[in-house]
Amino acid sequence: MISVLYDLLYLFPLSLVSVLAAGIYMYMPQRSGLPFVLLIVIFATCLYVVHRKSRLRFLLPVILILSAAMAVFIQKGEERSHFVFNNQWVLWVSLAVVGCFFAGKLILFTRWGKRVMAAAIIVTLGICMWQKINVDKAVVSLAFLPVLLILTEEVQSRWKKSGYTDGKSHLVGVSPFLILICVLVFISPSSEKPYSWSMFVKIWEKASEGIELTSRFFHSGDEDYIAKTGFNSDGIFTDNVREDSKELIRMTSIKPVGSVVYLVGGVYDNFEGMEWHATHTPDTREHMLDIIETAAAVYGRDPDNVQEYMKKAEVRLYYLDFNTSYTFLPEKSVFAGNKISDIDILCENGSFKSVKPLGYSSDYSVNFFRMNRGSEACSDMLANPLITDEQTWDEVRYNRIPESGYKRDDREVYDTSYASYLEYQDSIYDIYLPETEISDKTGLFLEELFEDADSDYEKLTRIEKLLGEMEYDLDPGRLPEDVTTPAEYLDHLLFNSQKGFCTHYATAFVLLARSQGIPARLVQGFYVTGWDGKNTVVTSAMAHSWAEAYIKGIGWVSFEPTPGKKLLIRGASMRKAVHIRALLRNYHISRIWRKSRKQWKRKKEVL
User: Fold this and answer.
1) How far is CA 70 from CA 66, 73, 80, in A?
2) CA dist., res. 251 & res. 415, Å (int)
3) In sequence order, what E strands does 477-554 have?
4) Is 491 exposed, middle or buried (0-12, 13-18, 19+ CB in 10 A)?
5) Cα(49)–Cα(59) distance, rounded to whole angstroms?
6) How far apart are CA 108 and CA 183, in angstroms?
7) What are the angstrom distances between the C-alpha of 89 and each of 93, 117, 335, 501?
8) Which uninterrupted H or E stretch holds 209?
9) Dihedral of the CA atoms 175, 177, 182, 183 (nearest 10)?
């Protein structure tokens, strides 16, 4: 009798759980007790066959099978198929009960089998909870009974017992208390709101972090940003981009950052052989001079309404599955006065890099200045920059942003004097404004595009709009073999393909800006969106290229020429309503020919 009760305690809950959990797939009749009556009959038959020592013990299952076959056989014609379909649940319930019964018997033969079964039940319930699969409360209560039974047996096996020491008898004796626990779990009220399990979540996070750190220790030399992000340090054109969504960096907004943050990884100045190269590396001093120039433009123009033009922001970056030496920073970041100053940074090939490779759990916070590009005041400042005088310059670098580290303990950390600033301005034109040739066709097109544009900023916004209305395509194909120069590249993009991905459009923006005498450069890094208030995760799908142009008296300003990205010219004043798509569509060779003839006639008249 003890053996029967022992099997009943273990195997009946398993059989019942299987039927309850898989009932929807067994086509069982709704709100009917018949499936559970059948379950009890089949389970009792299995117990009878296993524990009855008579030769006639197999007679009962044979009778049940013959009865089911007879019920099918007596149906006529089409009624038989309908009968079988409507009652197929009988077969599935029978198979589920028999399968669970005999599989359970095999598992109960060994202690390790029981341990594996308990672990499997716990893991299954955990997966259901993790994946937010709705599991009936009765199923959970029944599933925990075998787990409690196995734990009880494990405890009993370690006790020193005297007298009657049969383990099965002891388990059957305490089983009413275990069943009572499961019943109480089932009948106790449960909150509609899920339990947070905060303590267990923290334990899990720490354990996961430890495992990850151990793994990273053996792969600390991997420079995996290229494979995961497509962030190519050589700036080489490819025919397609492989995009995935690997989580790389977790970002937290300590001070408001806006809806989009650009994380700078590399800056490129030289476009040669259809490849971008970093021949000049902006050092920390130049980075500081740029911030001072922008701040001086604001304070010199409207010191009482700085927030209309520029806002201070702060973010914390926490590296996840990402090994790299690149220190990704927001634009116009301030190095001193925050955790970024704790990282030993060097300037190399147009990028800021950490001397010690960064990897899982590396973190730093950084302050930066975010231009309020959506305000009319900021747009007007960009379109009409003022020349910063030495008095305003010194006021800003010493008193307005003292936390930037430009002056520390009454001594200069870097030479950020006004004279150094003027030299820096000259160097920008030398480095970022090389001679850029364009074709006559592109030149005539730009004449029409820039008609009535009365500032560099308006020209830049028109270029941004021109490119932003083209087609974004991750697989635009290879460039034609006859496209080997910047002029040929612009002709191909403007008048032939009009499609590509971010690097194509950022390159075109830089070349077009330079053709108008405006210093410009290509930047690569991450275009970060998806803030849930204060947090977001930087994924490899956010890898991006964009352009920066230098506006004298303002500093470096970002532009977003890639179609589909959030434009940065919101609120910008466009002096002329330029319908770019119509302009491209209507622009054809005959118009170029007519303008060329007019120019030729003018030259002849002059001669």
Assistant:
1) 6, 5, 11
2) 32
3) 499-500, 520-528, 535-539, 543-551
4) middle
5) 9
6) 24
7) 6, 26, 70, 56
8) helix 198-217
9) 120
**b/e map 42-61, b = 16+ CB within 10 Å:** bbebbbbbeeeeeeeeeebb
CA 97, CA 89: separation in Å to the nearest integer?
12
Q: Which two tokens stand for residue 260?
A: 């989009």
* N residues, the chain: 607
Q: Which helix (H) or strand (E) holds 286?
A: helix 284-301
Rounded to the nearest 5°, which phi and psi values hold at 526?
-130, 140
* Token output for 27: 């086509």
218/545 Cα distance (integer angstroms): 32
How far apart CA 285 and CA 550 sit, in angstroms, is: 17
> CB count, 10 Å around CB of 598?
10
Tell me the pairing of strands 411-412 and 407-408. Answer: antiparallel
Q: CA 163, 169, 172, 175 torsion: positive or negative? A: positive
For residues 380 and 305, give the distance between their C-alpha atoms in angstroms, rounded to a whole number: 14
Q: Within its chain, how far is the Cα of 194 from the centroid?
A: 26
Residue 484: both structure tokens together: 């080997």
Going by C-alpha positions, the residue among 262, 239, 240 that lies closest to residue 522 is: 262
Spell out the domain ranges in the chain: 2-187, 225-238+247-591
Give this prediction's pTM: 0.61
Which residues make beta-bridge pairs with 247? 539
Q: Are 413 and 286 in contact (CB under 8 A)?
A: no
How does pLDDT run across 404-441, given as a tens digit for each residue? Answer: 444 444 444 678 899 999 999 999 999 999 999 999 99
172-186, 201-215, 288-302: range with lowest mean pLDDT: 201-215
For 67-125, the pLDDT digits (tens) are: 888 888 888 777 777 787 778 888 888 888 888 888 888 888 788 888 888 888 888 88
470 within 8 A of 505, measured Cβ to Cβ: yes
Whether 576 has a pLDDT exceeding 50, the answer reads no
Q: Which residues contact 203 (CB under 8 A, 6 or more apart)?
A: none
Phi, psi (rounded to 5 degrees) for 520: -150, 160
The residue behind tokens 């079964």 is 117
Indicate the SS3 state at residue 260. coil
DSSP class per residue in 117-185: HHHHHHHHHHHHHHTT----HHHHHHHHHHHHHHHHHHHHHTS---S---HHHHHHHHHHHHHHHHHHH
- Start-to-end CA distance of the chain, whole Å, equals 122
Q: Angle at the Cα of 579 (from 239 to 594), degrees rounded to 5?
A: 90
CA–CA separation, 243 and 217 (whole Å): 27
Mean pLDDT value of segment 457-483? 91
